[in-house]
Design brief:
Methyltransferase, Cobalt-precorrin-4 Transmethylase, Domain 2; 20 strands; alpha+beta; 4-stranded mixed β-sheet; 34% helix; Heat Shock Protein 90; 6-stranded mixed β-sheet
């Protein structure tokens, strides 16, 4: 996108930013010359989000004004000569159309557009040595990258996928893989694709087929892949390879954790078990309207799909060698998905979809095999669709480019909507009613549900419905909590007891003494 003269004038009043840099560029003769610090800004912007360097602008006391450049042609020749000199700069990201002359106050200034470098082009550095000569743009300044940051860029440049590495033979399928996790995954595949040929193999061959074990045809080396260890491994084995590996889920209310899932020794600590545990927590409070496809009830909404895709996306794009843990947070109606590592594509490509550059391709394939995640860069458009249907704001994408690096995707409800909700009619459409009645006998309105709910009462979340269907007698609040595995009594009252009582589906046995120690709850006849 070009920058207009009017826009330039406006930028002068705003000053410098992460994507705008002003330089005087008069040179020794005062006619125009590239300043020496131009290349630091060029490197910094290329390694961040790109931007504009405007030459011919002077600064005094943080105020910018036009100085002008008398010999624009000389300056442009110098620019393109040095851009194509690999002893001077590592990559040329500027074309003729990216350099535009503007006339402001009868003086010429030069606006130079710096593109964001691709993963394969980073790091963009001065001279021939990236160490000590690579910069990144943070806020309104050019910061020298540490050797660790440079090594990270070089690693990302060289490795299309980080998780196909074959581990040391000291990692054993028998000892280091959580076989119950692998069996659960296999059952998930069986449910998703009952006739899949991989299901005919015994466990070790099955593990190989899905990418958990690989043989390098050139070196002959074979063993567990990094993806196999992350997806199905035991926590201790994963930490032997990645000492900083940690995955964390938190539910927060009023600045405290109500619930938390992390490797605490009570479960495997691998990615697949983490996904299963966390996904259920994420969607536990989403209302599911009654909806039919054919004669089958649809128990999922686009919001479910959006949160599932965001969770899978977080896990398959994380750089597990980083010190920053994977962190998923749920706070009221807001969600945060944080993974170590920054985007491998531009922000525009991220939101528009169609560009696929997964940091852990084998992990992605493992999720895809059982129907989780999306192919070829279509996942984020699905996330946006779910947010739009739910009337949520467009997700916010945050990246931290300095150390430690991480990416965060934030979901928030709209200003008007303070409750997690999937907006759709609570009642069944007439066509759905007719279809349900003709294809499967009586419709739900006629036959009722297992718990005696009419169609107008179905718009409750799946966990409320699951609890209701388990109540056969009068139960105490602790007994009810045990049915769904909840431990926080206050939150359970708010999220389960109160909604069911307001719907008239649950009642107290001692209604005149709500806080009685003998209080029990039972289903109503509705």
């Amino acid at each position: 996108m070009d920058i207009s003269t009017a826009s330039l004038k406006h930028l002068l009043s705003l000053g410098e930013s992460s994507q705008v840099e002003f330089k005087l560029a008069l040179g020794r003769e005062g006619k125009g010359e590239l300043p020496k610090d131009f290349w630091r800004s060029y490197s910094a912007m290329a390694n961040a989000y790109g931007g504009w360097i405007i030459l011919g602008i002077k600064e005094k006391n943080n105020t910018f004004s036009v100085a002008g450049i008398s010999d624009i042609d000389k300056l442009q020749r110098e620019l393109f000569s040095l851009l194509n000199n690999r002893d001077h700069i590592s990559a040329n990201l500027i074309s003729d159309t990216d350099v535009v002359t503007h006339i402001i106050e009868d003086k010429k200034v030069l606006a130079i557009k710096i593109k964001q470098a691709s993963r394969k082009e980073k790091p963009v550095f001065l001279t021939k040595n990236p160490f000590g000569n690579t910069y990144i743009r943070l806020y309104d300044g050019d910061r020298l990258c540490s050797d660790e940051q440079v090594k990270r860029m070089l690693s990302e440049q060289l490795n299309d996928s980080l998780d196909n590495e074959i581990l040391s033979p000291h990692f054993s399928f028998t000892e280091d893989i959580e076989h119950s996790t692998l069996n659960t995954y296999r059952n998930r595949l069986s449910a998703h694709k009952p006739d899949h040929p991989f299901l005919d193999f015994e466990p070790f061959e099955f593990f190989k087929k899905i990418g958990g074990w690989r043989k390098d045809r050139f070196s002959g080396k074979e063993g567990i892949t990094l993806a196999g260890l992350l997806m199905f491994g035991k926590f201790e084995a994963i930490q032997d390879h990645f000492p900083h590996y940690f995955i964390d889920y938190r539910e927060l209310s009023e600045n405290r954790w109500d619930e938390r899932i992390f490797p605490d020794g009570t479960w495997s600590g691998n990615l697949f078990d983490f996904y299963r545990k966390v996904y259920q927590k994420l969607v536990s409070e989403i209302k599911i309207p009654f909806n039919l496809q054919g004669d089958q009830r649809i128990d999922e909404t686009p919001v479910h799909e959006a949160l599932r895709e965001a969770l899978v996306n977080t896990l398959v794009h994380a750089n597990y060698a980083e010190k920053t843990p994977v962190l998923i947070e749920k706070s009221g109606s807001s969600f945060r998905f944080r993974n170590p590592g920054i985007l491998r594509i531009t922000r525009d490509e991220f939101f528009s979809g169609g560009v696929h550059d997964c940091r852990n391709s084998l992990l992605h394939q493992m999720f895809l095999l059982i129907g989780l995640g999306e192919r070829a860069g279509s996942g984020v458009p699905k996330i946006l669709k779910g947010c739009d249907i739910a009337h949520w704001r467009k997700p916010i994408l945050e990246e931290k480019l300095d150390q430690p690096q991480y990416t965060t995707l934030i979901f928030e409800p709209s200003i008007k909507d303070t409750q997690l909700n999937y907006s759709q009619s609570d009642s069944v459409s007439e066509s759905s009613r007719d279809q349900a009645g003709t294809k499967s006998g009586p419709s739900r309105d006629q036959a009722g549900t297992k718990s005696g709910l009419s169609s107008s009462q179905i718009n409750i979340n799946s966990e409320l419905l699951a609890l209701l269907q388990q109540i056969e007698d009068e139960l105490s609040i602790q007994e009810l909590m045990n049915l769904v595995g909840r431990t926080n009594r206050t939150k359970f009252r708010k999220q389960y007891i109160q909604p069911l009582m307001e719907l008239g589906l649950l009642e107290m046995t001692i209604p005149n003494k709500p806080t009685s120690s003998k209080q029990r709850y039972r289903k109503t006849n509705k």
